[in-house]
Task: inverse folding
């Protein structure tokens, strides 16, 4: 069977916190599809900082050309596009007239004609790339409610609607997003988060007293309940945090008991999580977070360790496998009582649920759907 080239129009950088964008690119490449991972073309104007400027200069240095072959990945090239954010009129003009045509030219040379395209940010830039690439099939993998993103383009609802109608297939990562999409695309299907099961299974072990609690992921004031994190530390637990930083409460990392390990590669996560007794997913419940189904959920469950999470809709669907908390003090109450709440049956149920939601299983289902429509 001839496997067509695949272009992933990602919403993140390759070296950013590992998400389904990178996972799908690796799985396509591993299955023999020549794959090009196109790093984010932008959604909002970046906050000005030293790190932002460094990333801009690095993007300019790496942009264009033949992309970077990933030595550990079969048939996978990472391409860094040079674009302006799809916000102001002048930026959009520059993209449409100068920058997007160059990206299209590069991708045609790298990927070849008529690729399968998996699209993420539903911006005017993405729509321009789709028009120029002339793909044989477009999958819009809807993973966020972009209308609630801070500083997103004012017409993001309009451009997303265009992408819903332009795509041959639409998948959603949560039931919340699925319900929203069905008003435009009745044929939308659910493709939730999954786990590289074997990678996290190495952390399985018998339960016991809880002393070290962990959150791993991207920290930001818009998404994470810092009151819950403070309450956990204040109750005497060691709080290990692994991941990148957005906006963080001033002085948070100076609190005794907070152990910040920094951002690590996806491959390095198991080592960074060794010795953790329980995980927390302390999301704020707001319009930005309500649609999400956190990618790390099944990664936590695969370890067999107990998980305490916010009352997001996707978390409520897993209430038989995780513990839910509405307020900061409820996180503490659950963590303090885990020795009485936990048993071997619950631990095994979490592990089995994660096993059933492995990325291998999820990818086979997605691949089958794609081939039925090609």
Result:
């Amino acid at each position: 069977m001839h496997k067509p080239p695949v272009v992933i129009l990602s919403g993140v950088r390759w070296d950013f916190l590992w998400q389904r964008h990178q996972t799908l690119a690796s799985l396509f490449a591993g299955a023999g599809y020549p794959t090009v991972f196109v790093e984010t073309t932008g959604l909002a104007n970046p906050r000005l900082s030293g790190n932002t400027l460094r990333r801009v200069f690095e993007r300019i240095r790496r942009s264009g050309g033949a992309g970077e072959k990933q030595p550990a990945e079969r048939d996978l090239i990472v391409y860094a596009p040079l674009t302006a954010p799809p916000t102001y009129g002048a930026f959009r003009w520059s993209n449409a007239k100068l920058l997007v045509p160059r990206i299209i030219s590069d991708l045609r040379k790298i990927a070849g004609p008529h690729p399968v395209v998996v699209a993420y940010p539903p911006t005017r830039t993405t729509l321009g790339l789709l028009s120029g690439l002339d793909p044989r099939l477009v999958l819009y993998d809807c993973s966020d409610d972009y209308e609630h993103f801070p500083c997103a383009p004012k017409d993001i609802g309009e451009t997303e609607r265009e992408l819903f109608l332009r795509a041959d297939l639409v998948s959603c990562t949560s039931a919340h997003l699925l319900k929203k999409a069905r008003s435009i695309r009745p044929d939308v299907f659910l493709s939730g988060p999954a786990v590289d099961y074997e990678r996290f299974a190495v952390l399985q072990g018998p339960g016991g007293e809880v002393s070290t609690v962990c959150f791993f992921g991207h920290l930001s004031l818009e998404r994470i309940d810092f009151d819950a994190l403070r309450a956990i530390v204040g109750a005497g637990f060691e709080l290990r945090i692994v991941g990148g930083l957005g906006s963080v409460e001033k002085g948070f990392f100076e609190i005794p008991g907070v152990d910040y390990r920094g951002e690590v590669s996806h491959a390095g996560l198991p080592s960074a999580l060794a010795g953790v007794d329980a995980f927390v997913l302390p999301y704020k419940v707001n319009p930005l977070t309500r649609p999400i189904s956190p990618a790390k959920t099944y990664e936590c469950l695969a370890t067999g360790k107990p998980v305490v999470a916010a009352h997001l809709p996707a978390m409520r669907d897993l209430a038989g496998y995780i513990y839910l908390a509405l307020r900061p003090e409820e996180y503490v109450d659950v963590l303090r009582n885990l020795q009485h709440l936990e048993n071997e049956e619950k631990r095994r149920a979490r592990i089995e649920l994660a096993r059933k939601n492995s990325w291998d299983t999820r990818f086979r289902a997605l691949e089958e759907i794609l081939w039925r429509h090609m």
